[in-house]
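Subject: design request, 118 residues
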């Protein structure tokens, strides 16, 4: 029988209250909070936190706080030079090959705007 995490990663219905998933969400939130509290003078600390939180944070990757995520893994940020606007939500598994405007939800491969936010 599959674990709840395996079900989640395979896109099946899963129980988010599973203790493993709860612990992983808490870990991701802690790391995101630490990242969001970094300062411009913190040197490599923000990059170190991103590498610990995300599946892949490629060289030259830059994310401006505030960052939020549920788990962090399976998130790859590897293409520098693709600006994303403010208040952008990127769906799991989305591949973003071009600039994104403010206030949108995107998903798919390649990513497309699913919804505009108010």
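Subject: RE: design request

Done. Sequence follows.
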């Amino acid at each position: 029988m599959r674990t709840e995490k395996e079900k989640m990663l395979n896109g099946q219905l899963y129980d988010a209250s599973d203790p493993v998933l709860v612990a992983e969400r808490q870990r991701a939130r802690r790391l995101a909070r630490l990242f969001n509290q970094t300062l411009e003078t913190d040197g490599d600390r923000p990059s170190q936190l991103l590498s610990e939180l995300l599946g892949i944070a490629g060289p030259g990757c830059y994310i401006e706080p505030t960052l939020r995520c549920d788990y962090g893994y399976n998130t790859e940020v590897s293409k520098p030079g693709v600006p994303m606007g403010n208040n952008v939500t990127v769906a799991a598994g989305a591949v973003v090959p071009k600039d994104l405007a403010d206030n949108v939800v995107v998903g798919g491969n390649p990513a497309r705007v699913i919804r505009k936010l108010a």
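The mean pLDDT is 90.
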